[in-house]
Amino acid sequence: MTTNGGSQPVFCTIVPPHVLDRLARSEDPALAGPARRSLEHDAYQRTKRRLTTVIGAPAVAAPAGAAADRPHRTVYDAAHTQDLPGTEVRAEGSDAGPDATVNRAYAGLGATFELYLKVYGRHSIDDDGLPLDATVHFGEGYDNAFWNGEQMVFGDGDGEVFLDFTIPVDVIGHELTHGVTQHTANLAYFGQSGALNESVSDVFGSLIKQYTLRQTAAEADWLIGAGLLAPRVTGTALRSMKAPGTAYDDDVLGKDPQPATMDHYVRTGRDNGGVHINSGIPNHAFYLAAAALGGYAWEKAGQIWYDVLTGGELKEEALFADFATLTVKAARERFGAGDELQAVRKAWEQVGVRTL
User: Fold this and answer.
1) For the stretch 73-107, what's the b/e string if a residue is b when 16 or more beta carbons lie within 10 angstroms of its beta carbon?
2) How far, in Å, CA of 241 to CA of 257, rounded?
3) When you count CB atoms within 10 A of the terminal residue's CB, does the N or C end of the chain come out lower?
4) What are the catalytic residues?
């Protein structure tokens, strides 16, 4: 389902461009080389995505006779090339093999499918049984993972700053959620709407991890990409929803630039208007709402956010205040004038976003 006049998929990566830009300027060739190659890969894929948007992507449908309530996963191996999708190495229902990266990708696709189906009644990312394809071992020391509008792609990392991008299940969930957004609210990838696009992916990526681990809001770490950073890096993850701006503080990566409130909103022309930076604000609002409500975050706060994403009222160029106002409305409509409504209102107030 696309609610806003046609699906316009964008090229979305888990590692923000500003991080790779900094690494590319390093005097250490072991850091700069992979980062520069990764930026070149991303530029090529971004251009390809733009061309596909113009001429149209090939239609992808579930195989004939496939059950919509079961995933249809295929994992491919690019063998360190940039050729997509690569060689098929694991199909739906086949046993795990010796390649741990393949197995993690397969499991992460399944975990994402399971949350959306069992919690929200959604049949794959398009709600129509879309096959879930992933390519691993993309490029040489590729420092990223992305959703290209049609499939997932994972790099192995350079081993110096980033490890294998299939390690954190929330990275897989984050990128596949860009596909959900593509088929629902279709949020424009610039400025506040782009930051909301990124935030929604962080929210559901985190919920997928929490659901897989059966963690409550109090038990969850609320980190995005925990386990992805190599031992030499001073940091815990790419982002923190609980405490934006604290995920890393490293001599190579610099300091996590995410703000937690509108008082520190970053105005920039880079990274599509700071979509990976200012997403910290709605991320923090979700964390605050989920923490206040307690229990499993996917049941109440997650349901409210999902209702907004899929409800048809969220505009492509929505601002934070637009999204916040819709979450208040969704909380009232689903749960009444109780704790849920108050928690959502207070969360947005705490991050400095006004609601109607």
Assistant:
1) bbbbbbeeebebbbeebbebeeeeeebebbbbbbb
2) 13
3) C
4) 175, 276
